[in-house]
Specification:
By secondary structure, the chain is mainly beta. Helix content is about 0%, strand content about 50%.
C-alpha cells in the first residue's frame, strides 16, 4: 500500500528516551516509565502496559479555567509504554521548567506534564471576581509541561517601562513574577468587537513575558429550549 500518508514524518517511531516529545505540531508523545499527568480526554492513542486513573475532583485535582472558574479535570497515566496526547488539533508546545522558574498558565491550555512538576491554583492578583473569578495554575519545580494554543501564539516581552495589556479570554500564560491588575478603559472597549463594550483588560507589569493566542475563547452556544 502506497500513499503520502505513510511518509516518515507521519510515522510514530519507538521512543529512545523516557518522557515528553513532540510527535508533530498538533500532538505530543509521552514515553511513560512510571507516572505522568494529562487533561482528561486528551489521550488519542497508546501502546504498552499503561493504566489511566481519573484524578480526584477536589481542588488539588483540578486546574481552574480563567474567567469562568470552570474546572479542568486531570488523569494520571502509570506504567510502561507510550501515549499520544492532542486536543482539537491545537498547536502543541513543550516548556522546560527548571528549578527557580515559575509559569502561570490558563487551565484550558494545559495538555500534559511531568509528575515532577508542582502546580498550585491561584486567583489572579488584582482580578477580583470579574466574570466569575480569574484563576490560573502556577507550575514550579523541574520537568516538562505540554501546552496547547489555538493558532500560533504571540509572546510579548514585559518590562518595567512597558507594561502589557491583554484580553483575559486570549491570554495563555505569563511569567509568574509579573504583577497583575485589571485595567478598565471604556474608550478602548467601545472600539473592540464592533462596539460590544469590552472594557477590561489584564495589565501585566514587571520583567518577564506574556503569551497570548490569536483568538478568544469560543462562546458557549445557548441550547435550544
Amino acid at each position: 500500500m502506497k500513499s503520502d500518508l505513510f511518509a516518515s514524518e507521519h510515522m510514530a517511531q519507538q521512543a529512545t528516551v523516557p518522557g515528553m516529545s513532540l510527535q508533530n505540531s498538533k500532538s505530543i508523545k509521552y514515553a511513560v516509565q512510571g507516572e505522568m499527568l494529562a487533561r482528561q480526554g486528551a489521550m488519542v492513542a497508546f501502546r504498552g502496559n499503561l493504566q489511566f486513573e481519573r484524578k480526584g475532583q477536589g481542588i488539588g485535582g483540578m486546574l481552574k479555567r480563567a474567567v469562568t472558574g470552570e474546572g479542568l479535570a486531570l488523569m494520571a497515566v502509570r506504567g510502561q509504554g507510550e501515549a499520544w496526547f492532542a486536543h482539537e488539533a491545537a498547536n502543541c508546545f513543550i516548556v522546560d521548567i527548571e528549578q527557580g522558574d515559575a509559569l502561570t498558565i490558563n487551565g484550558r491550555n494545559v495538555l500534559c506534564f511531568d509528575s515532577t512538576l508542582s502546580y498550585e491554583i491561584r486567583t489572579v492578583k488584582g482580578a477580583g471576581m470579574t466574570g466569575g473569578g480569574l484563576f490560573n495554575s502556577v507550575f514550579t519545580g523541574y520537568g516538562k509541561l505540554g501546552v496547547i494554543c489555538e493558532g500560533s501564539p504571540i509572546v510579548i516581552p514585559v518590562t518595567p517601562e512597558q507594561p502589557v495589556y491583554v484580553d483575559t479570554d486570549a491570554v495563555v500564560g505569563w511569567s509568574a513574577q509579573l504583577n497583575t491588575s485589571l485595567h478598565r478603559s471604556q474608550s478602548i472597549g467601545s472600539m473592540l468587537r464592533g462596539g460590544s463594550g469590552e472594557a477590561v483588560q489584564l495589565m501585566l507589569q514587571g520583567q518577564g513575558f506574556v503569551i497570548v493566542r490569536p483568538s478568544e475563547a469560543t462562546p458557549q452556544r445557548a441550547s435550544a429550549g
